[in-house]
User: Which sequence fits this backbone?
């Protein structure tokens, strides 16, 4: 295999892994391709719920033809016994001759041990290809493993002047149908959709993925210090069908907690800082529950809290060609900045038209 062949097949493995994003937490979403003599013999990606893993699925497709083949995997194969046997054992038993993967897994149960096990079995291992792409794909899993919190995407759909509603609260619809459809696709690729209590009260959102022909739904998270949320809301009525997680303060009314639990919600007591829920505590709670990727859709107070605490990893902007004015509701609440140098800054990754709107995606300026 040439270097360009390795990159081509590894890119395919990475693309397969992305198919599982949002469905495999707390595990990473990994892709695997089995190749011999320029022919793809098998392919697989992590199944919903995190198992079976990508490698055994790809090996099952390849069958006996996998002997002597190369396995392209988007992350180091696991080497520990969990709920399934190690993927390294499956690759060795199948007679794989070579494994190509971008990097080691940061999970301390693996962290290079998978590669060592493969080499000890006489399998050639190649690493270091397409590292940037793999780091981006697995950023949520790495963050949960290393920092204890999920990767956070903050989505802001707003007017040209940064407003998400008029002074009377009207917000449907600022952006067009193409933008709304993309939002549903983005929800699908995240483990959870998160909003603040103000948004939950004002919009009565369902926070589900619709019109894409899928059955799986992300977890729906509401950040509400006092749990002062409508008990007849869409979220409350559907909590037993689609998971609802509520992050609240330690001093919440016990009756409210029991009521929400009776409706089917899962509750997380989080720390309070400066009179509001500490966003770092919220994300630690979500990471501790297994989430790796969270899609935050506001509102302004929650967006400001996350930005102010430097907890936003990716910004997605959908901007419409309409102006609302200073009396409209801002997309981001007050940050209390005295100097421009202290403002959160992001680096543009992509910008393109999206129907009648503009999509712009940003990543941390320091990454």
Assistant:
């Amino acid at each position: 295999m040439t270097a360009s062949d390795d990159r081509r097949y590894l890119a395919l493995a990475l693309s397969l892994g992305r198919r599982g994003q949002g469905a495999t937490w707390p595990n990473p979403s990994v892709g695997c391709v089995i190749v011999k003599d320029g022919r793809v013999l098998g392919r697989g990606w992590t199944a919903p719920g995190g198992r079976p893993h990508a490698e055994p699925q790809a090996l099952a497709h390849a069958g006996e033809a996998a002997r002597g083949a190369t396995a392209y995997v988007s992350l180091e194969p696991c080497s520990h016994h969990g709920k399934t046997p190690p993927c390294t054992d499956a690759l060795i038993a199948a007679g794989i001759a070579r494994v190509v993967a971008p990097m080691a897994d940061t999970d301390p149960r693996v962290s290079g041990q998978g590669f060592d096990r493969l080499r000890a079995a006489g399998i050639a291992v190649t690493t270091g290809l397409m590292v940037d792409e793999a780091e981006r794909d697995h950023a949520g899993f790495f963050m949960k493993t290393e920092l204890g919190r999920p990767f956070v995407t903050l989505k802001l759909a707003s007017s040209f002047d940064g407003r998400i509603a008029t002074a009377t609260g009207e917000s449907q619809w600022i952006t067009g149908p193409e933008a709304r459809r993309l939002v549903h696709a983005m929800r699908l690729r995240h483990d959870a959709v998160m909003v603040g209590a103000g948004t939950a009260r004002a919009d009565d959102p369902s926070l589900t993925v619709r019109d894409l022909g899928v059955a799986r739904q992300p977890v729906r998270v509401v950040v509400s210090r006092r749990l002062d949320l409508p008990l007849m809301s869409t979220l409350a009525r559907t909590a037993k069908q689609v998971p609802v997680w509520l992050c609240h303060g330690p001093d919440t009314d016990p009756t409210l907690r029991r009521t929400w639990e009776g409706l089917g919600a899962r509750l997380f007591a989080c720390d309070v800082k400066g009179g509001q829920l500490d966003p770092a505590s919220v994300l630690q709670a979500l990471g501790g529950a297994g989430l790796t990727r969270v899609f935050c859709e506001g509102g302004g107070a929650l967006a400001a809290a996350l930005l102010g605490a430097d907890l936003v990893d990716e910004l997605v902007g959908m901007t419409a060609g309409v102006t609302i004015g200073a009396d409209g509701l801002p997309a981001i609440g007050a940050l209390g900045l005295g100097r421009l140098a202290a403002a959160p800054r992001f680096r543009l990754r992509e910008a393109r038209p999206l129907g009648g709107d503009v999509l712009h995606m940003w990543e941390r300026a320091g990454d």
Summary: The chain has a mean pLDDT of 94.
